[in-house]
Amino acid sequence: MSFALMQKLSAWHVSRQSVKRAWSEWDFLVLDIETSGLDPKQDHIVSFGWVCIHKGVIELDTARHIVLDSAQIGDSVGIHMITDSDVQQQGKKQESVLRYLRHLLRERVLVMHHAPMELGFLKQAWQTEALPTFSANWLDTLAIERTKANRSQQPIQDGGFRLGVCRERYGLAEYQGHDALTDALATAELLLAQIAYQGRNCRLHDLNQMGGGRVRFTTR
Q1: Ramachandran quadrant class, 165 (left: phi over 0; alpha: psi -120 to 50; beta: rest)
Q2: CA distances in angstroms from 9 to 2, 3, 94, 116, listed in the order given
Q3: Which of 115, 139, 114, 161 is nearest to 207 (CA)?
Q4: Between 40 and 4, whose confidence is greater?
Q5: Residue 212 vs residues 6, 51, 112, 204: alpha-carbon distances, Å
Q6: Which residue in 47, 190, 192 sits closest to 118, CA to CA?
Q7: How do residues 3-32 score in pLDDT, each as one tens digit?
Q8: Cross-strand pairs, 216
Q9: CA dist., res. 189 & res. 196, Å (int)
Q10: Which of 26, 108, 124, 188 has its CA 20 to 30 A from that of 53?
C-alpha cells in the first residue's frame, strides 16, 4: 500500500471518529476581520480580532486585536475607529499575523459570522504572502442561524441575519459593532447560544451540517 493511500485512509479514519465527538471536546478560534471594502481582490484587511473557546468556555485571555501596518485608513476611520496613528504605532505585518493565526488553527475550528466574506479575504491574503498550503475546519454562525430558521420555517426579514439581530433572538446583550475584537467576542457568544439551543448532545458534525466545512488556503 502506498504512503499516500495510507495517509488518506488515516485521515478518513480520524474524520469518521471525529463525527462522534461532542462539540465541547473541540477547541474553537472565533475570528472577525475588518476590511477597507467588500472585494478581496481590490480591498484590503485593516485589522484582525479573535478569541478562543476551550471546553465550552470563552477564554478572555486569548482575545487579540491586531492592526496591520499596511492598513490604509482614509475615510474608514469613522467605521473601524482605527487611526493612522494606531497603524504607525501598533501595526503588525500581515505575513506575521497570518503565520500566527495558522499556528493557532492547527488544533482549532475556525468560527466566523458570514464566512464567505472572511474566507475570501483570508484566501487573498494567503496568496499575497505566498504562505504554505494550509487547511482548516470552519463554522459560520450566520449559516447556522439560517439553517435553523429554514428548519423551523421561521420567516426572517431582510437584515435578520446580521450579527446583532441574530444575538437579539437569543436574548444576548447589545454591543458596539465594527471593532474586530468586539465582533469576535459577540460571535463567540452567539455560537455558544446556538449550541445551547441545539441541546446537550450537539456534535461538531451537527454544526457542520448546519453551516460549516473545510477550507484550503493555497498560493494559487
Answers
A1: alpha
A2: 11, 10, 35, 30
A3: 139
A4: 40
A5: 26, 19, 10, 9
A6: 47
A7: 555 555 554 555 555 667 889 999 999 999
A8: 135
A9: 11
A10: 124
